Amino acid sequence: MISHTFVLLAVTSGSLAQLGLKLDTQLDGGWMMPSSGYASTTQFVLNDEIKADGSYGSTACGMAGWAGPGQKFHTDGPGKGPGFLYAAINQRAFGAVNGPGWACGKCYTITPISDADEVLCDQSLTFEICDLCPVGTQNFKNCGQCRGSTNTAFGQEFHFDIATDAMNAEQYATFTKGITYGSNWKKVQFELVDCDRSVNPLFTTRSWGCASGCKLNNALDACTDATTGKLVSTEVADHYSGLHKKRMTMSPVSSLDK
Which domain of life does this protein belong to (predicted)? Predict the structure, then answer.
């Protein structure tokens, strides 16, 4: 497959689909919206950040709730949710500062790859981006990439943090079958696709939030470098979202393994 990169201010996954194209899009300010590639994964508890009924918290996309009015889900562990597939994505691909990013509401099919480099097609699931993978003290290596040459703890260019408490038991068992490093995949294959609203419901947002068609937000002039943890110029790096730095996704071990 030939890889193309275009410098654009705005492009929608829908317009790409209409053209039958899968393009990696280099966005204004250095952000990268990947159409396909390889990544690593960790897990996080969405209910620690935002309550399912919308009564508390929000994500970097402004996600206010992930359940209908009055609904309560068991969210006390992996695979004990309603069967929704949500994920956060690393800084370079998120696409905004201090608010919702370009990736909010986009959906990616994620396919695990075994240690023997076998693509586990039967374990593919489609996840909707609802958050920025947090750039905190122990998260730089997985979540804080500013340059394409900076890889995650597992040597991948991109990273997904999976909201496992929103998954049901079958989804969780399918996605994690054969996993060998805690609860994390060292390598997955991903592709930008249309969302499946049966498992990727369009989440409600705060007034400042965004679930689809998010605009670029280049408010800050620096990004936190994944290697050094220091701010670097946007002339050589992407921007940095200052929200949600406190949620910790252990690198490379998932926070659920602590």
Answer: Eukaryota
